[in-house]
Amino acid sequence: IAAKDRKIALWNIGVAYTAFLIGTLCGLLQVFIRNDALQLPAWLDYYQILTAHGVLLALIYTAFFIFGFFVTGMSKTLGTFGPKVWLFSWIGFWVTLAGTVLATIMIVSGEASVLYTFYAPLKASGWYYVGLALYVVGTWISSFALIAHYLVWRKAHKGEMSPLFAFMTIATLVLWLIACLGVVATVLFQYIPWAFGWTDTINVELSRSLFWYFGHPLVYFWLLPAYMAWYLIVPKLLGVKVFSDSLARLSFVLFILFSIPVGFHHQLTEPGISNFWKFLQVVLTFMVIVPSLMTAFSMFATFETSGRKKGAKGLFGWFAMLPWKDVRFTSIFIAMAFFIPGGAGGIINASFQLNEVVHNTLWIVGHFHITVGTPVAMTFMGMTFWLIPYLTGRKFTKSMQRLGFVQIITWSIGMLLMSTAQHVLGLLGAPRRTAYSSYNNHPAALEWFDGILTSHVTMAIGGSILFISAMMLMYIVVMTMFLSPKAEKPEDIVEFPLADSDRESSPKFLENWKIWIGIAFALILIAYAIPLSSMIQHAPPGSEGLKTW
Ligand code: HAS
C-alpha cells in the first residue's frame, strides 16, 4: 500500500503498543496487590491501577490496533486513500489520541479511579469524561473517513459486491457508530453536567443502561476484527479460499442486528428494570450467539477443506495437516480454541438464573480474559507478526518467529492458569474488583484462596508469566518497527495474507445497508424504548438534571 497510508496505520499501531506496554504492567502490579505481596505508595491505589489496566488494554490498545488494521486493509483492497480520506484519518487519529492522553492523565493523577466500566454512582473528574468524549469523537472521524473511502469505491464499481475485507470493516464500523450513541448520550448529558457540578445528582439506572447499550456491542467491536482475521487470513495461510463469502457476510450482518439490544444482560441483578425487558434482552442475547456458531462451523470447514486438499484421510486427519510451524497460524488457532470455553462462559452469564451465581464475582474477570484477553488479543498478536513488517518493509526473521512461539505459548499458559483460578474462585463466591486488603483478613473470605488452583499465588504466577510474554511481544514489535533489517530479497518480503472469496456468488441484498441498519434500529426500539422512557419518567428527585436526563 502507499507509503502515506502506511504511516497512518503505523502510528495507530505504535500508540496501541504503547498502551499495551503500560496496561500489561498495571496488570502485573494488580495480581501482586491482590496477593498482598506489594504495598503501594500513598499516591497510588488498587483502583487507580485497575482503571488504567482496563482502559489502556480494553479501550485504547484495541481501538488503535483495530484502526491500524482497517486502514491497512482498506487501502490494500480498495486502493490508496484520496486526500480527504487521508486528512480525516489523521484528524481522527489525533483527536482519539488527545482524548486518550487526557483520560490517562486523569487516571494516573487519581482523579478517575472509576474503572473501565465507568458508570455511576462512581464519579470521576469532569475532564475524564471530556477525554472519553474526545476519544469517541476521534474514532467517529476515523470511521467516517473509512466509510467515505468505501463509498467512493462503490460509486466507481456500481452493481459490484465490495471485497469481503471492506464489507466486514464497514459492518464493524456501523456497529461501532450505533453502539456509541448510548455512551455519547450519557457522557454528554449526564456525566459531564454531574461531574462539573452543573447538576446535583444523576439518574443512575438510566446512566448504567445507556452505558451497557454501548458496553456489550463494544465487545463485538473487539471481536469482529479478530473474526476478520479468522475468515480472511487463516484460509490464506492454509492455501484455500474463504469457505463461504455469503456465510461470512451474513454472520457480520447478524452482529449488527443482535449485538446492541442486549445490554440488560449486564444488569440482570438491577432492580430498576422489570423482568419482562430483561427476559426479552436475554432472548436477543441468545440470537447473538448464532453468528459465532456460524463462524466456528466455517472455521472447521476451512480446516477440513485444506486438509483434504493436502491428502488428509479419516475424520480428523486434516488436523495434522494444519501449518503448525507458522506462528501466524498457530497463535490464531490457540486463540480460537480459547473461545470455546470463553463462549460457553458467555452463554452461562447470559442465562437469566445462572447469572445470579456468577454476577460480580471473579468468574466474570475470568470470562473476559478468555474472550478479549486471549481469543481477541492472541489473534491481534498473530496479526502483529506480519502486519508491522508488512508496513515497515522489515524482516520477520527466523529467530523472531521462534520467539513468537515462546511468546504465544507463555501467553496461553499464563491465561490458562490465571483465568481458571478466576473462574473457580468466582464460583466459590470471591467478588470481582475487590482489593485483597479490603477483605480485612476475614477468615471466611480468605478460605476462598486456600486451594491449589484457586490461590492468589496461582493468579500471580499466571499474571507474571503473562507479563513476561507481553515483554517478548514488545521486543518483536520494536524490532519489526524500527530495528530489524529491511527485507530486500523477495523471500524476505512479508505479505498481507488475504484469501480470495467468491463474492460474485453472494446475494446482493447482503450489502444493502439500509435494510440492516433499519432492522437494527427497529430491534433497538423494541428492546429499549419503553424501559428507558420509564427510567426517565421515574427519575429520582434532583436527577432530572438538564430536565429530561
Ligand atoms: Fe461476555 C460480561 C455474555 C462474548 C467480553 N463479557 C463480559 C465482560 C466482558 C465481556 C469484558 O450475558 C465484563 C463486563 C464488565 O466489566 O462487567 N459474552 C456473553 C455472550 C457472549 C459473550 C453470550 N464477551 C464475549 C466476547 C467478549 C466478551 C466475545 C470480548 C471480546 N458477557 C456476557 C454476559 C456478561 C458478560 C451476560 C455479564 C455478566 C455479568 O453478570 O456481569 C457470546 O458472544 C459468546 C458466543 C461465542 C461462542 C463461541 C464460538 C466458538 C468459536 C471458536 C471455534 C474454535 C475453533 C478452533 C474453530 C458460542 C467461534 C477449534 C479448536 C479446537 C482445539 C477444537
From TrEMBL:
Keyword Metal-binding included in the entry's annotation: yes
Protein name (database record): B(O/a)3-type cytochrome-c oxidase subunit 1
GO molecular function: cytochrome-c oxidase activity; heme binding
Cell location: Membrane
Organism: Planococcus glaciei
Keywords assigned: Electron transport, Heme, Iron, Membrane, Metal-binding, Respiratory chain, Transmembrane, Transmembrane helix, Transport
Primary location class: membrane
Topological relation to the membrane, as annotated: Multi-pass membrane protein
Record-level GO BP terms: aerobic respiration
Bilayer-spanning residue ranges: 11-33, 53-73, 85-107, 127-152, 164-192, 212-234, 246-264, 276-303, 329-348, 368-391, 403-425, 457-483, 515-536
Record-annotated Cytochrome oxidase subunit I profile domain positions: 1-484
Family: Belongs to the heme-copper respiratory oxidase family.
One Gene Ontology cellular component: membrane
Pfam families: COX1
Coiled coil residues, start to end: none
